[in-house]
TrEMBL record:
Biased composition (Low complexity): 1-11, 39-74
Signal peptide, first to last residue: none
Organism: Cryptosporangium aurantiacum
Cited InterPro entries: FAD/NAD-bd_sf
Superkingdom, taxonomy of origin: Bacteria
Start and end residues of each stretch annotated as Disordered: 1-79
Protein name from the UniProt record: FHA domain protein
Length: 578
């Protein structure tokens, strides 16, 4: 699939996470270039961090495998035909002629991650029975991709995530808060005290990842997630003659009698998460040229071998990026240095080096220092409900794009521990920061990576490093995902002012209405819409609420008014299955 945007990972289906097989090799399968002097990680040394794994290992969950046992169409091989692929709007006869079995369900969500979860949670609470919902997904649990991405980017279960109790994806009411829950579980007032004195005398309180996952599991069981889950890869969604949509699912090998299954539905929700992993162009070029997925890694892929290697001998790591993932990676490198007495040298390259408070005007300012821009949460808090939210809802076109630019920019929370570690690194001369642009990455004569960097003062320098960790992002273009590209090519989906999928204020994908049928979308592919924080738990919940309200207006579910809200919260509090 071609893309006008350079530097993306060659994953033809698009998507990020454990649901995909097309990622780079992991562990021992990573190929070392012939010139390399580095040993691959010793098997016995794998996974020695973190020690405190007090959370249960992930169980396996049975998906609801309702593939038709017998396909009843006389003709066709049960696969997509050239005619289907070329036709924008499908008739029932066209699908039948291809021999693809059809399953009717009023509502389906594609993805099965956090965005799908919160949407289904709202609908179940709004009284929609499990028979009316199907979740088409390539993962087993709604938190699987999120857990994968947080774990590899150095937020294992015992560590704390970035967002607070403004949103609990397992609890649409957000009450009681994570801090109250933690205080009760730990029988300690520490979390409550932190909430009381934050952020002046303590960092912002945020929950441990493990607690978030445990709560998601509890709520998933309560709403009977696995009764609605159907495993497989969604290939495309097309409009149907007469209204509604066909969604084509490719079930796992051998799970069904035909290669494809069609779901015929009135409503579709697209919650496929990140369209793809994006690498900096020079890093992607290095990996492709040398077929080296070992020394140049993305923070969003498994790169435990880097930390394992550094325990075996001193080494230098070049960290790229200035966001929260760079902070996490630095913390891991620095924790290991302290814990195992390592001699790791860290070079941190910022493209934009922030020296102090910055911003367009007095109302749009962020603190900053030592390269980083600081912000507690992913977005200014006012996007969730204040004036900024109201203003954004009215902006169109270039004005909206400019507003996103003004509030955007890479940032990380200011945390006491990180500041102390970086100060120690600067004093000890083992943490070095640079401002500059990397122009190329090559293999040096000693087999190490050599980054050619144009520094802020115009000087060109070569930086040798044993490993480069790219912490710059998950920002692949929406067309990188095959399903989204298909929606753009065949179903009238366009781009919003910042280049992602154009959604209405109700999160309906603009241009896709078909009779009474509607397609909704939420999450990262819709960033740039009327509501800014879409790729966060709270943003996903706001989208889910808008979608549930829209579906209530259309008569698909009940409105969650005060009476239903109270009675459903009581059920939630008692963990009563619905
Ligand atoms: C490292 C990291 C930390 C984050 N921390 C926070 C935080 O602290 N607080 C916060 O509010 N937000 C956070 N976010 C942002 C966001 O809330 C999460 O990424 C969240 O998981 C997004 O949910 P989603 O449903 O959009 O995507 P996902 O949870 O990734 O789910 C999408 C799923 O769709 C599946 N899929 C894609 N294509 C197909 C297909 N064709 N067929 C079938 N399945 C498909 C994918 O495999 C994936 O599992 C973080 C993000 C990252 C990357």
């Amino acid at each position: 699939m071609s893309s006008p945007y350079p530097g993306q990972t060659p994953n033809h289906g698009g998507g990020v996470g454990p649901g995909y097989a097309a990622g780079p090799p992991s562990g021992d399968a990573r190929r070392l270039p012939p010139t390399s002097v580095f040993p691959s990680s010793a098997p016995g040394q794998q996974q020695s961090y973190p020690a405190q794994q007090s959370y249960p290992a992930q169980q396996s969950y049975p998906a609801q495998q309702s593939y038709p046992a017998q396909q009843s169409y006389p003709a066709g091989g049960g696969d997509l035909t050239p005619q289907l692929i070329e036709t924008d709007i499908w008739s029932d006869q066209l699908v039948a002629a291809a021999g693809i079995p059809v399953i009717d369900v009023p509502f389906l969500t594609i993805g099965g991650g956090i965005g799908s979860f919160v949407t289904v949670d709202y609908l179940r609470i709004a009284g929609v029975p499990t028979e009316s919902i199907r979740i088409l997904s390539n993962i087993d649990t709604p938190w699987q991709t999120y857990e994968y991405l947080t774990r590899v980017s150095q937020i294992p279960r015992p560590e704390r995530i970035r967002s607070d109790s403004a949103s609990r994806p397992d609890n649409i009411w957000g009450f009681p808060s994570y801090a109250v829950e933690e205080a009760m579980k730990d029988k300690s007032l520490k979390a409550l005290w932190q909430v009381l004195v934050e952020p002046m005398f303590a960092d912002f309180y945020t929950p441990r990842a493990g607690m978030v996952f445990e709560n998601l599991e509890r709520e998933a069981k309560r709403i009977r997630w696995w009764d609605m889950l159907v495993k497989g890869q969604v290939r495309m969604v097309r409009r149907r003659h007469g209204g509604g949509y066909y969604t084509i699912l490719t079930p796992p090998d051998g799970a069904a009698q035909t290669k494809r299954i069609a779901y015929r539905s009135q409503y579709v929700h697209v919650g496929i998460g990140y369209p793809g992993l994006k690498f900096l162009p020079e890093l992607q070029e290095f990996r492709t040229k040398h077929q080296d997925f070992h020394h140049v890694v993305n923070a969003y892929e498994d790169h435990e071998h880097v930390y394992t290697f550094l325990k075996s001998r001193p080494g230098t790591v070049l960290v790229r990026g200035g966001g929260i993932v760079a902070s996490r990676v630095l913390q891991r490198l620095m924790d290991d240095r302290e814990k195992f007495g390592l001699q790791t040298q860290i070079v941190h390259l910022f493209r934009t080096y922030v020296r102090g408070p910055h911003g367009k005007n007095a109302w749009l300012r962020r603190p900053g220092s030592n390269g980083f821009a600081y912000q507690g949460f992913n977005y200014p808090k006012s996007v969730w409900g204040g004036q900024l939210k109201a203003r954004m809802r009215k902006l169109e076109g270039a004005e909206r794009a400019q507003a996103y630019k003004d509030m955007g920019g890479t940032n990380t929370p200011w945390r006491r521990r990180w500041q102390a570690q970086m100060n120690a690194g600067r004093q000890g001369n083992w943490y070095h920061t640079l401002e500059g642009t990397a122009e190329a990455v090559n293999l040096g004569p000693d087999g190490r990576t050599l980054s050619r960097v144009k520094l802020g003062n115009g000087q060109i320098t070569d930086i040798p490093a044993d490993f480069i960790i790219d912490c710059t992002g998950l920002e692949a273009d929406v067309r990188e995902h095959r399903l989204l590209a298909d929606l753009m090519d065949h179903s009238g989906v366009g781009r919003n002012p910042v280049g992602r999928l154009d959604v209405e204020r109700t999160f309906e994908l603009r241009g896709t209405a078909n009779g009474e049928g509607r397609i909704y979308a939420s999450g990262s592919p819709t960033l740039g819409g009327y509501f800014p924080g879409v790729d966060t738990f709270l943003g996903l919940q706001v989208a889910a609420q808008e979608i549930a309200d829209d579906l209530a207006r259309r008569g698909f579910c009940k409105r969650i008014g005060p009476g239903r809200s109270v009675s459903q919260w009581l059920k939630w509090a008692r963990n009563q299955q619905i």
